[in-house]
Every structure is written in structure tokens, then in C-alpha cells.
């Protein structure tokens, strides 16, 4: 007996590791075989497929499900025509098979893109139904069911009703026509200046569309907001049309960033003044031309009079004038204008207060198909900012949030920083616009201000790298953005767990510690880069690494770190109180008072709103200097801990991805120490206070760090 | 040349340490010589004294200043009659010398106890004036000037106008007539059952009165709120009268805790029913008897129908009935009733909500000379609680806060815990009673609700120990309470610095690290005892050490730790949300919503308001279990750091106090580890989660800790 056990054990240990190397190119859509128990469960529940509908979208849904089912269970589905035990019926409300189920009451809650998944009794057993008002809803429902199977959930008794929180859920690619990607850290553009055959590219675009559809993203702007006017030439319109054809079965609309000066630059007009009838006509004609090729074209995204981009103010007009002119050109085609509020100029007003000041006067004065796109924070996409006061401020015109998936300020593709926690922090933030219960999410999803047009966007982090995002964990942010855009009440942790299971492995001994790293990762980055509300102290131009000391002769003050940290022998931080730049007054009561008072402001925004002496005492009794230093060290400790945790997870996933991630985590710790030492040593030249004695000494020397120069442009 | 330097160095090192051992008995009133430069400055500024007035209080002020000046500078002051260069003139407004200075406008701001300190020009130079409307004001002004000298401030150009925030600033002694002190950790009572001669005792009482006057405390209740009826017998009234005589020159009133059942117990009446005319008459007679002996007697403090004490509800009457009966007895004599709202009974309502429910119906129904005394937190004096919702809740009747100086729940006299930061946290807490700007302080100081009667109190920490408070740093809490009662806008740090300089030494190399320890100390205690809003998990009855596991058969549930921590396999914390005991609804909007939402509630009150699963994620991404464990370890790390810092300060102060404090800090670390290990290991039996791998392992074993039993009663 014991001999038998022994030889079994030997056999077990001699078995080759069968986990094959993976590149990450399949994202969370790997569809690899599940364990036997799950296979049995799923093939018991579903054995055949009935597709009640025949358009391209529902066909894509059917194809996806068959592929997923085959991959996950090793079994093919029979295609049948009549409901019966073990069938999966997918279809739209107008189809007779769905009508017979009398779901209309519930379908009313689903809107145009929502869906129902339900287990219903039939003769001899039960079947599963995915029903929706449109094929798009069926597609999203199908991906929902697939996700349940991918994550090992039971599908024996389903009762799901879903609809998305925002109508438009869109990615912004900052891709230039020459193939570079602004703030891209995963290789060059997948869209532009590509040498590959169309067959290769179109396969990739289809995968991209599937990935987006799987998380509910229904649109994408594929070129940079710093837009090249040439994108409006026939050559590019044709390119866009070919891509749109691939997107269409996945309910993805294509949008375009346009340059406000296009009429003059490529249209040969005298100017691009929005009050010039020729300019107005030019945009109308251009819109008609686009819609000729792309009937479901989404619309324009515009960065105007911002960081040197042309705009209506070049002609003495306003943002309203510019946006409304474009809106009118698109109205006949149901296109929209996403007009960015990311505006600031050197001048009397501090950067963070300008967008609000500039846009609030136009509240309610935009055309119905204009939506104002606002970055989550009033400065930029810092690791932590207060939310932009335009959320809850602007009430009559619709406002959409712009997040940044690409990690411009959070470690590029070197650092593991799971951003769902950051986005949830903003979406859940209380604006008090209509008293308690006025979260940022509710100010933008139509709940509070009854807008029809609702949207949410995020700057993409993908490029031509084999794993799409440079860092394997960058994929999780693409995934999480989609999931939150659909339902911001999801927990970051649950989203992380789904993603880990689909992307890596199901074993809880792997899943739990990895989710733990993810959940702690953003705060770790904040701590080693920008604790206590510090911000904008990264390297000049490329934004890589710490440069609190940067001084570029002749540079705009509001592009220099010292504008933001204000470190001196007295103290540190940005005074945005009523005594300072007065950003606080742009918030509703009581937030205006809470932010204005260093006793009441949340500790993690202390230096965002206040300039305080080095020996200022925090509520926990620590001196500001000590508290700041502890935070920097805490960030590094966390990065080290992530390495430690990851190292113990070897063997749970394929060796390739394990080692690639291991390498990145090591790099993250190295760079975390760089940040910590640079900031602590630099600020110490002002505070003249010691690093608490129980902490390890800095590894680097300040002068050595100051000498580091990086010849990089946007990193890709 | 180098030989000379060498021998000077040798000489320096050979000099004996001239710092004499100190016992701490002189508190912060040591009046030891300052360094030469200061002596020169002060004797330049002040060389003579003019006392414009001749009552006992102004005489005490003059005596104090002469003693202080002599001690600090080694010089005696000439007593003179006419203003001139180098004079210090102290006097009240009606005195001609003060009238001549035309200060009446400024004196209007001072009220009955405030004062002006001003440098005024005279022929041949300048003189210093302390002026006030009453002798009491002169006394407080004199102590202010002394404090400036004690702390080395310049007195060459003074321009001070002060008045106290609260009218009544009172200590509560929990001293029993048998000489024990409930929750006293510094020896037996200084008031009762004392064998010493009156000369010895009266000298101590005078020192006590001086110490209180030096920080503005103007009243004291010398017996326990769990009051012995015998305190109202002639024997004790005479004792009180003798003590009151000593207090009088220091503007200190004496108050008495009384037992509601006194008429029956010592008066021989049938009952103590407040509606019984005989009872009412008994109290009137008793008040007259007291005022006969003590014309400036302050009034009564009453704990009724609370923790077994008798009260009006024993006769079907209410708190209002009881308080008003006593109030009427005192009205003719200008006495007041401080009626405690610390009430709770086992029953349907959770402990923390009961005081509000029981007292709010009587808002506005008390006599004018009744003030409701409310503990800072709704449960008790835990290391951290939310503030009691009666602050800002009760608006028509005046409310006073009761703090606890004695460290019942913060390490007794073993732990260094500077409590000013805790009290400031409460005083500064925003109630939103009348929108932003309605701090707890402003709800009780007359600002918001226009009450004439305002007061603040704290339970004293003193006893017969030579240094008064057991722990030398316990003195700082007595000191800080007085300073905050006078001016709650003072910074805890500035108060600490004053106290350290007066109590120990002026050298900034000593002062700064010691102030740093003090400022961090309360949060450290919170962390190793009760992080994240945990509370009431201390030892049964004596409240010493951790006992989260306590189970006493037949004990009241609301006296057991499990009632408060609710640890289970699911999670931990007290649900006081709208789904739980609903304490949240007793707060004004938006606090009610903020506290109700685990996303919005401050992290340090998370488990005070919420019962959450062990894997609940905090805003910083940490799991609740991990976050809690980190906090426990952080607390211990801080205690260790305090030792480390203190050890490096040897030689700055006398060896006796240095070593005594060193010993206590060691004890504090030992007990911090005990708390940490006990709580982490105990809660781990529910969470079944590991202690994060990078942390040291617990030193103790849970079973071993559970066996510890202490046969102590109130510790003194």
C-alpha cells in the first residue's frame, strides 16, 4: 500500500510542468481549458445554441460563445433551432422565441445596450437565455456569460439584469499619424504608419474590438487629441472606414480627434473662425464626407486652445462658439462633439482653477450633442488629485470624465499600478452638488441632472507590444476601465479577481495575493512618488522619474515642479485655500470649507490644498516632514513587499509571464527607491530636518540623481 | 595655543553634572534660574513692582510674581508706589493708576477673568502693565507673564489681550471619602482620609491652587461622582470650607459631587423623590448650610440613574425633574448644577445612542443654572471615539464637555500619552449643527447657541504620589487641559513646548524630540490598543491591559468587550449605521451620511461605525485584517522609538526624572507588545488570516496571555 502511494508521489513530481509559456497577447480572452469539474457543470448546463437573429452583431456574439465554450470545455455546441433542455438561446426582443418568454417588463430596464441572462424551465429540464432589446445587448450578455464561465462561477441558475451606467464608453488613443504614441509605453501605434499587411492588422483590430466588447467599451478615438489636420483628408477617412467595418460587429463606434485649424490648414480657407460661414460649411461638408464612408461614425473629440492647440479663441470666439459650430455640422448625422475642458494658460490664475473659470459661464449654452470632457483632476492625471470641481459644478450641460489608463504619472509601463481604486475614488467622491449622495459618477451619468447624453472616457495604454500594454498588469487597467464604465458600483477587488482568474490562473493561493498586490499598488505609487497631496514633481517633458528640482530657463512656470511643491525653508505644498489660489471655492459646501481647513482636509490631499510649515503637525501627531518621509519609505516598503509576494508565486503561471512580471517588479522597486531618495533628499535641502533615525539611509546621493538625464520622447 | 584648547576641553568634561535630582513635586512651577542672557533681559525690563489693589487675590498674584522673579533671575523686585521706567504695574480697572492708562476699550474685551499685558512708555523708558476688570484677571495675567519668562520669551514689548473661552473650567476628582481614587493611578486621595497635619496638607492645597490658577482652572469638584451621601454632613462641609479658604486667593471655587439619595440616606426622609416637598426643602436647607460656610461655593455635580447610582427615575421622575429641583435649591446662592448625561442601561438600545435619546427630550427644559455634562464620546473615554452627538444636538440648554485626564483607557500612569491632541480633535470636530464652523467647542462655549452658562471639565489624574500624577508626563495633561479650557485655539504642540521648557529644560535639542514624542504619543496608544475605531477591549473592571476575550458569566453584555468588537469569522466592528444601532442618525447632515458610509467615514473611526468583513478593502487598498495588524505593529514601533529617542536625551535633565521616565517608557513598550499580541492573536482566531510575512512574529502566546489575572481595584 505504502509502496503504491510512494510511486504515485514520484510520478507526480516527475510530471513535466505543463504550463505553456504565454506572451499575454490574448489578454483576458485566453479561453483555455477549465478543470474537469467545471467542464462537467458547464456542459451539463449548456449543450446547444439557438441564435434568434441574424445580423452581424448577434453573429459575432454566437461566434464568440462557440469559441469560448470550445476553448473552456473542449466541447462544441450543437446549433439548434428549437428551445429545449440544455440550450442557450440568444436573441433580441422582437424575435418570436424571445417574445414567447414574456420578458418585456424586465427588458424595459435594460435600455438599448443592457441584457437579461436567465435560466428558464423547459420540458425535461432548463435552458439559458440571453435576451436584449438590441443585438448589442445580446453581445454584452454573451460576454457576461463567458466571463462567468472563465472565472469558474456557477451558471446553473442565472438571474441577471444589466444595463450600462454611461451611454458612451470610449477609449482615447493618443496616437500620432507618424505611428508614435504620446504617453505610450507599449510600443508604437497599432493604427498608424504600420508596415504590416491588412490581414495581419485587421486580425489585430478584430481582437481589439472583441476585447473592448468583452468589457462593454463601445467606442474609440484612435488618434491623438493633439490632432494632425491631415486626419480629415480622404486618405485617413478611408483608413477609419476600414477599421470601423471591423469594429461594427462588436458594437464599437469610431471617433476622431480633429484639429480646430483644419479648415485653414487642409481646407485652404482663409481662417478657421467659427463665425466664418465658409468654415461652418467646410465642417458640414467634412462631416457629410465622413458619414458617407462611416454611417455610424461617432463624432469628434477636440482639444482646442489648450497647450498650444488652435481653437476658437484665436479668432476672439469662445469654447462655446467652437463646440457649437462643430456640433451643428454633426447633428444631421447623430454625431457628437466631445469638447475638452483641459485648458490653462500662464497668467494670474493658478492652473487648477482655470478650467472651471473658463467653462462655467457656458453651462447650458452648448448644443445638445456637445459633451464637455473633463480630466478627473483639475491639474492633470496626477497619482492623486482632488476631483475637478466641474463635476457637480456644471449642471445644465452634460459633462464626461476623462481618466488616463496609460501611466503617464504612475510609473509608465514599468510599475504595477492597478488604477481601478483610483478611478473609484474619483467616481465615488462626494461633490455635495445636491447634498449628500451627489457622487462624481452621479453628476455625469444622468442621475442628478437628467442629461440624455452621458459618457465616460479614458486614455488608452496600448501599443504594438506583444502583450498590448508593456506591463502585463497594464492589461488590468484596460479591463477595469471597461468594467467600471459599465457599472461603477463594482468593487475594484472583484474586478481584479475576475481579471486575474481570466488572465492567469484560478488557484486561490495565487489569486488572493495577486489581488492584494493590485489593491495596494496605487497607494504604494502615490506614497513613493507624491504622498500627502504632492503632485507634478516628475521629470520634465518625458515625465519619467523624479525631478522636483527641475529648472528650465525660460520655461512656463506652470510646467515646473516648483510651481506645485513650493518647497522652501518655511514649508511645502500648494496653497489653494481662500488665502491662496482659491480652488476651494469652486467646490460645493461643505467641501469648500473642509478643503480650506488643514484640520478637516483629508490627509491624502493636505499638500494639494495647503502650504504648511515643515513642523506642522498632522492629526496623527506626526510632523509634516516626518510624515512625508515615512510615506516615501512606506511606498518603497510596499514595492519590496510586492516582489516578495510575487517571488513566492512561481509555478502557478507560465514561466515567461512570471519572469517578465518579476523583472518589472524589481524595476519598480529600483525606481521607487529612486523617487524616494530624490524627493526626500531634495526636500531636505529646504527642511534641514533629519530623516527619522530608525529608517534606512538613502541609497542615492542627491547630486548624482540630479545629473541623470534621459533622452526620451514620450517613451515609445 | 592647541594646548590651551585641549585643557579647556578637559576642564569642560571634568565639570560635575550640576543638574540636581528633582522629584517632580513642583510641577511646571519650578522657578529655577534662567541663563544669564535672559536674566539680563528680564531685569532690564522689570525692576520694581506696583500693586494697585489690596485684596487676597491680587496679593496672591503679587506674591507669586515676586517668588517667580526671584527664582528665575536671582533678583528681588523693589516694591514701589509710583509708575516709572522698569516697573511692573498690576491692578484692576477701578484703580486710579490703571484708569490713568485709558484701557477701558480693551478691557471691555476681557470680561470678568481676562486681562491685558502691555508695555507702555513712561518718562525715561517703559513699564509693563497687567490690567484687568477683576483681581482674578490680574492673577491670570500675572501667571501669563511668569510663563513667558519661564519659557524664555521676550518681555520687552508686550501687547496681550486675553479672555477665557469657558466661564467655568473645572477639575473633577473621583476621590472617595475613604481616600481611594476611582481610576486614580497616582496614589490615594490628596483630599480625604489623610493622616497628615493640616499644615502639611494646606501647603499642598495651596500648591494645587497655584498650579490650577497658573493654567486658568477656576474650580474643582474634589469628591467622586459616585458620591457618598456623607459628603453632605456637617463634618465634610467644614472640611470643604477649610479647603475653599485656601483656594479663594487663587480664584478657585470648590464644588461637590452629591448623591441623589442623600435626603433619605442622611436626612432621614422617607424618600428622595424630587416631587416630595420635604425633599425639596431638605436640599434648600442643605444649600443654605453650605453657603453659610462657603459663600462662594460653586455648586453640585450629579451622577444620577447611571451605573447603579440613585436618581429621580427611581421615583418615576426624570432627569429634568431631578436637576431642576437641585437647581432651585442653589439659585438663591448663584450655585449651579452640573448634571451628567453619562447614562446607559442594558436594553434594546445600544449603549452609545442612549444618552442622546434620554436627554434630547429635555432640551430647553432645564433651569438656567443647570448645565448638562457630557463625556467627549458617546460610550466613554475610549482612546478614540466619535464625539457625542449631544454636542450640537442639544441647543437650547447649555452643555459642557467632560474629558478624562486620568488615563483609565490610555495606559494608566504607565504610558506616556499626551492628551491635548485627543481633546483638540474633539473640540475642533465639526458638528455641522449650524453648517460648517460649528465645532464641538463652539457648541459649548456660548458662540453658537448664546448661552450665558458655559463650562468645561476633566477628570483629574492626581494623587498623593510625590510627582502628583504617577507618570511625570501625566503632569502635561493637567497642564494642557487648563490651557485648552482657557483657549482651545492653542496648538497642542505649543502647549507641549511651554510645558517641557517649564518642567524640564530649555535646550531645543531636548525640547524638540520630547515634544515630538508627546505629539505622537496618543496615536501610538490608539494604534497598539484600539486602532481603526475599535474600543472597550480592555480588562474587566480594572481596565488594565487587553482582554478582548473577556467573558464573565452573568455580566452585563454592555460591559463585555465582545459587545463592542463583535469579532466573528465574518469580520469585526460595531455596526452603528442605519442598519445597526443607528448612532449615525444622531449626527447632523452631512455627518450622518458620511459616518454611515464605509467609503466616507474617516479611517480612524471605521470600526466604530461599521462591522466589516476581514477582507474589506480600505481606501488605501489594504485588507481590513492587514490594515488592523499593521496599526497594532505601528503602535509598538512608535513606543520603541520613544524609548530610543529618550535614551539619547540623557544629561539634559536631572538623572532622577530621566531614569523614572526611562523606566516608564520601557514599561510602555512591554505593555504595548502585550496589547498588540493579545489583540492580533485573539482576532486571528476569527479571521484565520496570517500576520503579514514581513512583520515580526508575536512574542507572546494567546493562551498564556489569557491566563493573566490582575487583582487590582482602580489601581491606586
TrEMBL record, chains A, B:
What SUPFAM superfamilies does the database record attribute to this sequence? (Trans)glycosidases, beta-N-acetylhexosaminidase-like domain
The signal peptide here is none
Its EC top class is hydrolase
One Pfam family cited in the UniProt record for this chain: Glyco_hydro_67C
Q: Which domain of life is it from?
A: Bacteria
Domain Glycosyl hydrolase family 67 C-terminal: from-to ranges? 469-694
An annotated GO cellular component: extracellular region
Give the catalytic activity. Hydrolysis of (1->2)-alpha-D-(4-O-methyl)glucuronosyl links in the main chain of hardwood xylans
Query: Which InterPro entries does this one have?
Result: A-glucoronidase_C_sf (IPR037054), GH (IPR017853), Glyco_hydro_67_aGlcAse (IPR011395), Glyco_hydro_67_aGlcAse_N (IPR005154), Glyco_hydro_67_C (IPR011099), Glyco_hydro_67_cat (IPR011100), Hex-like_dom2 (IPR029018)
Quote one Gene Ontology molecular function term: xylan alpha-1,2-glucuronosidase activity
Q: Does the keyword Hydrolase apply?
A: yes
Q: Which UniProt keywords apply?
A: Carbohydrate metabolism, Glycosidase, Hydrolase, Polysaccharide degradation, Xylan degradation
User: What EC number(s) is this enzyme filed under?
Assistant: 3.2.1.131
Glycosyl hydrolase family 67 catalytic domain boundaries: 149-468
Q: Which GO terms describe its biological process?
A: xylan catabolic process
Q: Where is the Alpha glucuronidase N-terminal domain?
A: 27-145
What residues form the catalytic site here?
307 (proton donor), 380 (proton acceptor), 408 (proton acceptor)
| Record text on subunit structure and interactions | Homodimer.
* PANTHER family in alphabetical order: ALPHA-GLUCURONIDASE A
UniProt record similarity statement: Belongs to the glycosyl hydrolase 67 family.
Q: What is this protein called?
A: Xylan alpha-1,2-glucuronidase
